[in-house]
Automatic annotation (TrEMBL), chains A, B:
The keyword Transmembrane does not apply. Keywords: DNA-binding, Transcription, Transcription regulation. Pfam families: HxlR. This is Transcriptional regulator, HxlR family. The keyword Endoplasmic reticulum does not apply. One of its GO terms (molecular function) is DNA binding. Residues 7-105 form the HTH hxlR-type domain. SUPFAM superfamilies: Winged helix' DNA-binding domain.
Length: 111, 111
């Protein structure tokens, strides 16, 4: 196996972060717990895809889903300790991007 | 546009890192410049895919490609200043993964 000398833990971490929208969902939840509808309105993805990603993040031990028996029922998502431990990762990506992503790149993204 | 309040620079940074194998290529190049064949033998991907990723990373200003007129010709890839500035990102992912990715997750990846 050619990947034998790659750190398999790093590989698992990269897999998680490299799944599209996971970084943004974690970014949002670092601000505090959120209802599904709050997450949905802050991200440019469908409710279905968001729901899928949240299930995967829950399965990976990154987020929890709590149902509060209010009327109507309130469902909140928040980061676990493992999820909150991603703060330095998200912060370092943010700092790098603020310093190094130039306006040309932003323009080409908006096309 | 629903994503209006997402930081567009963070979005561009995440796009770059979330493209599969980019993290690993940068991880490798943080150790120093590498020939194409060295990168190829350290990653579990085809030469064609590696070449594609390296072209994209070069276009994004993350890597450079230098041709040395030896016999046979020697081509080396290395990180630019913008690329080397990703060290804290890669390091924080590595540290998070070492602490938080558990053996069950590693087992499920190997299946």
């Amino acid at each position: 196996m050619k990947s034998a000398d790659l750190c398999p833990r790093f590989e698992t971490g990269m897999e998680l972060l490299s799944k599209r929208w996971n970084g943004f969902i974690i970014f949002r939840l670092l601000e505090g717990s959120q209802r599904f509808s709050e997450l949905e309105s802050s991200l440019p993805i469908s409710g279905r895809l968001l729901s899928e990603r949240l299930k995967e993040l829950e399965a990976a031990g990154i987020t929890t889903r709590t149902v509060y028996p209010d009327t109507p029922v309130r469902i909140e998502y928040e980061l676990t300790e493992k999820g909150r431990a991603l703060r330095p990762v998200i912060t370092s990506i943010k700092e790098w991007a603020e310093k190094w992503v130039n306006s040309e790149e932003l323009d080409s993204m908006n096309q």
